[in-house]
Amino acid sequence: MEIEGMKDILVNKRYRVDRRIGEGGFGLVYAGIDTKTEEEVAIKPTPIRDGPEALQYTYDALSGGVGILRVQWFGPECDFYVLVHELLRPSLEDLFNYCDQRFSP
């Protein structure tokens, strides 16, 4: 479910939503900025009707991966529970696959 008008919304009076960066089994994910540190973050909203357990499942699944994400904030915001965490960059394996498994010509 796309959240209309998410761009430039402040979550927890600190995290500014910038753009949508993904959608999949874990729902929508937005890139944003921590307005206090200027760091990029990932912002994942889920409807309150789904309960906080939905985001707990997401966090548990992601935290077992290659990069262990650092949660910066979790809580209710308007009609959503929101999980804000560091924005993970592509892994070396992701880059290798993106370059057709060749780093040099």
Question: How many alpha or pi helices?
Answer: 2
CATH superfamily, by name, is Phosphorylase Kinase, domain 1
Q: Output mean pLDDT.
A: 83
Q: Main sheet: which strands, in order across? A: 1-2-3-4-6-5
Classification by helices and strands:
alpha+beta
Question: Largest sheet, described in full?
Answer: 6 strands, antiparallel
CATH architecture descriptor: 2-Layer Sandwich
Q: Note the gap between the termini.
A: 42 Å
How many domains in all? 1
Poorly predicted regions: none
**What fold name stands as the CATH topology?**
Phosphorylase Kinase, domain 1
How big is the Rg? 15 Å
Helical proportion, percent range:
10-25%
Written as H for each helix and E for each strand, in order along the chain, the element string is: EEEEHEEH
Strand content is 35-45%
In CATH, what is the class?
Alpha Beta
Per DSSP E runs of 2 or more residues, the count of β-strands stands at 6
Principal-axes geometry comes out as globular
Can you offer a commentary on this structure?
- The protein has 105 residues and is α+β, with helices and mostly antiparallel strands.
- It has one domain: 2-Layer Sandwich (Phosphorylase Kinase, domain 1).
- The protein is built from 2 helices and 6 strands.
- A 6-stranded antiparallel sheet has the order 1-2-3-4-6-5, covered by helices on one side.
- The model has no long low-confidence stretch (mean pLDDT 83).
